[in-house]
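Fold it.
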Amino acid sequence: MKLIGMLDSPFVRRVAVSLQLLGLKFEHQPLSVFSTFEAFAQINPVVKAPTLICDDGTALMDSTLILQYAAALVPARKLLADEPKILQRQLQLLGLALAACEKSVQLVYERQLRPQDKQYDAWTQRVTGQLLAAYEELESQITLASPLTSDRVDLADLTIAIAWHFSQQMLAEVVIASDFPKLTSLSAMAERLPEFQRAPFGSGACQFAQ
């Protein structure tokens, strides 16, 4: 399989980390939807990251759909629970984390890609409010009863950690770390896991041992 997209995207990175936790081997091609648009289009004309090219050549898009397929390949290692009450809790946190990812990316695009005289302040304020609301809910909801380990981390935990790390890298002056001590701690624990370290935030490729 081939994972296409940059690790500075929280959506690409959550797939890269999850595939490793599931024990699935893949090749990573860090193509940008901006600077390498044409090369990306040769692989997937929609130019949407992440894209997963399956072993038979099928292209899958959207991190959640990709991970649903990946989970079906490795039923013995589950990133989401089967028990309805636990799953409900995981999905609640996962929805908040994905909202934080989405709003962070929207805010980065608005601030970095749109000319300043074309930026819409009301929209920026609304997205910022949604972003902070998602993190405030996560901060109040998560518990840190035990350290994260590779065999225990679930999809909600890793998505929260990746969303937070992205926001701190790109929007640290908007999302103030000292206001969210539990999220800061969760992210720090996650970033120490080997699966996170092999898929570091940035423009490089996943760093697998040769």
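The first strand starts at residue 2 and ends at 4.
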